[in-house]
Structures are given as structure tokens and as C-alpha cells.
Amino acid sequence: MKMIVAKDLNNAIGKNNQLPWKLSADLKSFKLLTMDNTILMGRKTFESIGSKPLPNRRNIVLTRDKNKCLQNVEVVYNINEAIELDKNLIVIGGSEIYNLCLPLVSELYLTVVNTVIKDADAFFPSVDIYDWITKSHWTQKKDEKNQYSFSFYHLIKV
Predict the structure, then answer these.
(1) Whether the model pTM is above 0.85
(2) How many Å apart are CA 36 and CA 41, to the nearest integer?
(3) pLDDT tens digits, 14-42
(4) Which alpha helices (H) appear in the chain, and where do they start and end?
(5) Is beta strand 107-113 parallel, antiparallel or unpaired with respect to 38-42?
(6) What CATH homologous superfamily does 2-157 map to?
(7) In angstroms, rounded to a whole number, what is the distance separating the alpha carbons of residues 15 and 2?
(8) Residue ranges of the domains in the chain?
(9) How far apart are CA 97 and CA 119, in angstroms?
């Protein structure tokens, strides 16, 4: 299982069920990494992207609500059901799903945004950097398409 996340310097990932930044280069990276793969997200994340599946990806939504009917995605009620559908999931959020899945992840695509979001209400769990090795790394400076500078890391669990 893999995980992809963008977080600020205090682990914030969201505010009011939305990404708190505009980072074109990071979105392009997200698309490249998830295209033609199976992605797993929570219901709130699914709603935050417009309650529509991301195209050219198998979309699985994890929810506790057994009565929840979602269009054009596969719905599961626990992580084991998701793994049964595809062992090579890429977890895309949100907070609760990240917390649930982080112990199961072998690769982490981590974007660290060089800012602190005030009043953030969704956070990524703390990661012990000693549990991971960096496979690759690149940085992006702030520009007209990227609201903040950021660093991107591809990490492998030790």
C-alpha cells in the first residue's frame, strides 16, 4: 500500500474540507502518481472533490455509514474490504484514513508545503523520519502557479 499527502510544516492537510493551498506542480505530480491506479479515500475527501470519481483511476471510498449510497465508486466499510479489492492501493486522504492506513503503508509520497495554515482542521499523523529512507526528492519554488514553495519526497519504509 502507498500513500500520497501534502502537508504544511505543522502537519495540516485541510481547512473546511478543502486543500488550503494552490500548488499546480504538486497536483500534476498527484495525477501522474495516481493515474491508472486504485485510490482509496474517505467519504469527506470524496465529497471535497465534488462527489465524483477521479478519472482514469479505480476509486474506492471508505465510510462507516452502511446506508451511504455513492455514485460511480466502490464503497467499503473497513480497510480489510479495501485491501481485498486491491492490495496496491494508493491512499489519498483524509485525516482519519491516513491515521488508519499509515501503519500498513510501504511507500509515502510526501509534499511538505513551506507554510503554516492558520485554523486548519485536518491533520496528517506524525511520521518518525527514522522509519523511512528517501528514494527521491525535489523542490518547487513559489511562483504564479504555486502559492507556496514546497519539497516533495518519495519515501520507502525501512
Answers:
(1) yes
(2) 16
(3) 999 999 999 999 999 999 999 999 999 99
(4) 24-34, 43-48, 79-85, 95-101
(5) unpaired
(6) Dihydrofolate Reductase, subunit A (3.40.430.10)
(7) 24
(8) 2-157
(9) 21
C-alpha cell at 112: 511538505
Q: Which amino acid makes up residue 99?
A: N
Name, in order, each residue with C-beta under 8 angstroms of 5's C-beta and a sequence gap of 6 or more.
13, 92, 93, 98, 108, 109, 110, 111, 124
* Phi and psi angles of residue 32, each rounded to the nearest 5 degrees, phi first: -60, -45
The type of residue at 2 is K
Residue 119, CA distances (Å) to 15, 48, 62, 122 in order: 7, 18, 26, 9
